[in-house]
Each structure stands twice: as structure tokens, then as C-alpha cells.
Amino acid sequence: MSKFTNFFKNAFGTETEEPELYSEEDIPPERKAELIGKFAQEIVDRRLSVPAILFVETVKPLSFLGSQAMVFFEPIIQSIFAFKSYKEIYLLLENRNNLELLLHEIEKREQKSK
Fold it and tell me: What residue numbers bound the domain in which 102 lies?
């Protein structure tokens, strides 16, 4: 299959392989913990804990607006990049409690790495 065909393979597809997610409650707790853990580990591995904590604390009141911006730009981003967990991430960002979980996870992993 050519590179061009691969790029546009799912551009107009309507079938989904995974169950449809409509809200944060549709994401299993294990998957939620996995996503937050992976995100926190990436931050710690790149030594961006302090800037990430500062940024998350600053934008916490705007988390819902940020998640809605992700919803708006999803068709564009998904046509360029194939992120399997994109929808799960913006559903998690709608709830500020998940940002608190992310902050605690970053702090916990940062302590373990020292």
C-alpha cells in the first residue's frame, strides 16, 4: 500500500473498532489510571515536573474550555495523526478532579525517581 493511501485510509471512515465514548464515566477506571500514569511518567522522564505542575495549576479553571477546544479540533488532528486515546484524553480533561489526580501522580513519580 502506498504512503499516500495509508495516510488517507481512515479519512472518511465511519466504522469504529472501539466502543463509543460519550462521557468520562464510559472510560473504565483501570484505563483512566493507565492514561494518567503514562502521561505523568512522560512528564517525569522528560524532567518537566515543575513546569507541568505550574501549568496545570494555572489552567485548571479552564480545563473544560480546553477539552472543548480539543473536541473542535479533533477531525483535523485525527486526519493528520492517529491518536487512539485522543477522545479519552479530552473526556478526562473535562473534569478538574482528573487534573488533581494527574498532579498527585506526577508528584508521586517524581519522589520515586529521586
Answer: 27-113
